[in-house]
Amino acid sequence: MITEWLDLPYTGSFDLAASARFIEGFTPSRSFTDESGGLRLGFPASPSWRPVGALVRQEKPDGPVQVRLNADEEDVPAATGHVRRILSLDVDGSGFPGLAERDPVVGEVRSFAPGLRPVLFHSPYEAACWSVIGQRVRMAQAAELRTQIARRVGSKVAVPAGTGELPGIRLDTFPAPRRLLSLGRVPLLPEVKSARLLALAEAALAGALDAAKLRALPAGEALRFLATLPGIGPFSAQLILLRGAGHPDVFATAEPRLHQAVTTAYGLTNPSLDELEHVANGWRPYRTWVSVLFRAREELARM
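RESULT FIELD:
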């Protein structure tokens, strides 16, 4: 069914246009804008894992945000929640401008895209699969592998148009966990990566990669658990928790590029990890958000 426009409530500042610019450069997302600036999304939505097509719109920064879904009726509430999480609208952002005022470095970084919030993977499951697909290959190659896997064995879903009842375009969604398990072997990947993706699919079906459950755990506990999954090390565990589940307040200790950006921005000299974490503690409760803004500034500067 194609729904009417549904409200996506949020608190604080938000600019869909800024998110759309960033998400189009966020290789794993496979998301696109339409001719009116609406954001198109296609993904399998837990807990049913049936494919969902979504069109998100916002007429002006900080204005109302709405979504139109192509989803089974019983999946609409969950799918709406997924979209809010993907755009970080499910986090109270009302305190973020105040943080930017207190910390001039954060204020300067935020000035590149004042309403930008972290744009996330469609699910922790997709973040985990991306982590495995991308191991020991260049990002561009990993992105092409992901695209081809989705095209070959994923589902196609129609994204609603902005008006009328007809769908807009069709997107290839990444294969849902049951679909991967039904294959027995993931195409285009070596045996070890295929086996790891199948294990992640089993974990997703068991609820081990549920975003709400991961965010409810203390961050350290969640990261330790994620690192026990096949093919998931410290870097991947942080990616899943921060950019998959959407935990808003963790400093990524396994991202050298972020550490270098922080070192430069704060005028530090060969800081230890403890010193970098001390700086990041001043960003609470938005350590993830600030970290993503540092990375986003690099990406937006290239556009």
